[in-house]
Specification:
21% strand, alpha/beta, 8 helices, globular, seven-stranded mixed sheet, binds S-adenosylmethionine
Length: 234
């Protein structure tokens, strides 16, 4: 037990240092988060919790929806930045494995690029399910282990960032994790940001990119670097 809490502190420290050095630039720009919101389609006044919120990007993108935004993150430095970016949101330092909110509290929960960073993925997911209302939606983005980048660079050459507790799993494994926790998989999509980025660059920023839409990529979804799962609490 003691060993686990020390390790958790090391992970938090690694993220604190990363946010100190790179601040908002550590994460994708705000427009990259529009797609998660378009999938969730939140209504005015809905309560949305972003688990491992980082600097608050998804809640920034959600401001136009007039939702009630909440965020938690284990990094004190991330929370400082998120509070600056979102003075009106409820952001606090907390561990995703013990979410400090009552059961059935949120209409929607998001967890982007973070699930595989938690020490106990299952505990953290159960917590997300607990705080989501029955019939509420969850949107998570998780890393794919079946990519050349992960297999060669990360696993093969040992470049996995252990201090930041970086992890990845294949599509089938992720699917069974969600199904075993009795979540309904509404749909699974490829990460949209590489496609949108390409569109932005190839048009030299002259054409408006629709960041909220879902696009089919050229390669099968199995090759996507990350998967976006849209889930429902039964
Ligand atoms: C790659 S960043 C993603 C941040 C944000 N979701 C985004 O996409 O903009 C991973 C985040 O997970 C947070 N994190 C890692 N372990 C955590 C835990 N056990 N509980 C809460 N947050 C955690 C880190 O501090 C970091 O902000």
């Amino acid at each position: 037990m003691e060993k686990q809490s020390t390790k958790q502190e090391e992970i938090a420290e690694w993220f604190d240092n990363t946010y100190k050095q790179r601040a908002n630039l550590y994460l994708r720009p705000i427009e990259a988060y529009e797609v998660f919101l378009s999938l969730l389609d939140p209504q005015k006044g809905d309560k949305l919790l972003d688990v491992a919120c980082g600097v608050g990007r998804i809640l920034q993108a959600a401001e136009k929806y007039q939702i009630d935004g909440y965020g938690i993150d284990i990094s004190k430095q991330a929370v400082l930045l998120a509070k600056k970016n979102l003075p009106n949101a409820n952001i606090q330092v907390a561990n995703a494995e013990t979410i400090p909110f009552p059961d059935d509290y949120f209409d929607a929960v998001t967890c982007i690029g973070s699930l595989e960073r938690f020490l106990s993925l299952e505990t953290a997911l159960k917590e997300q399910i607990r705080v989501t209302k029955k019939g509420g939606k969850l949107c998570v983005m998780v890393r794919n282990s079946n990519t050349l980048r992960w297999q060669i660079l990360k696993k093969g050459l040992g470049m996995v960032n252990k201090k930041g507790h970086q992890g990845a799993k294949g599509l089938e494994t992720w699917t069974s994790i969600f199904e075993n926790l009795q979540l309904q998989i509404i749909n699974v999509y490829r990460d949209q940001w590489p496609i949108k980025k390409l569109k932005k660059w190839s048009t030299l920023g002259l054409k408006k990119v629709d960041y909220a839409s879902i696009e089919a990529g050229l390669l099968p979804i199995q090759y996507s670097g990350e998967f976006i799962f849209l889930l429902k609490k039964k």
